[in-house]
């Protein structure tokens, strides 16, 4: 019986091959081909999880009609990384909440949007721990959902150019640095986990409070 390695071991194997090929076009082609083949195998082994993310994204598309490209990209990322569920056949409720946060920009643009995002961020973590359904898939989806939503929110709703720059540093820069380092070393590198201060979490609160204050000022302004 052919048993595939776990998601991290498989990713490290792919990255090692890319590094050993010195990142040449042929090495990239082999890397992409092997990654696609593994993704297809893992999706076939988890039809329930594939159906769950497909139904969820269909609901996002029907509810929003705001940016179908965003929804399609979210589905593609989820569908091609089902191996990160490890021994689970379902994505679980917690990850469904996470994917919903990632797709909030396509569904609604209400004044309470940042509050909804914060609520889902708290809820998915608690659900995953309570149900003991923490997986590499869920952890990665959580990080990407935060980066996608809050970067989008900052550039769409935050008037301060300085805070928009800080948003890039809080979410996009770390992800880019981790990815670049992983490719260079030929193995997965874990992002740093601050203990005392989490800049991204602080930025979430700052952006939310500023958005609510602006909404309150607008509501109290006299109409012409």
Give descriptors for this structure.
single chain, 224 residues, mainly alpha, 75% helix, globular
Compact overview of the structure:
This protein is an all-alpha fold and 224 residues long. It has ten helices and no strands. One of its GO terms (cellular component) is membrane.
Residues in β-strands, percent: under 5%
Cα distance spanning the termini: 75 Å
The percent of residues in helical segments reads: over 70%
- Give me the count of strands: 0
Description:
The protein has 224 residues and is mostly helical. The chain has one domain (7-220). Helices cover 75% and strands 0% of the residues. It is built from ten helices and no strands. Helix 1 packs antiparallel against helix 2 (25-45), helix 3 (47-64) runs parallel beside helix 5 and helix 8 runs antiparallel to helix 9. The longest helix is centred in the last third of the chain and has 25 residues, at 161-185. The protein starts with 6 loop residues before the first helix and ends with a helix. 26% of the residues are buried. It holds the Pfam family CDP-OH_P_transf. One of its GO terms (molecular function) is phosphotransferase activity, for other substituted phosphate groups. Keywords: Transferase. InterPro entries: CDP-OH_P_trans (IPR000462), CDP-OH_PTrfase_TM_dom (IPR043130), CDP_ALCOHOL_P_TRANSF_CS (IPR048254).
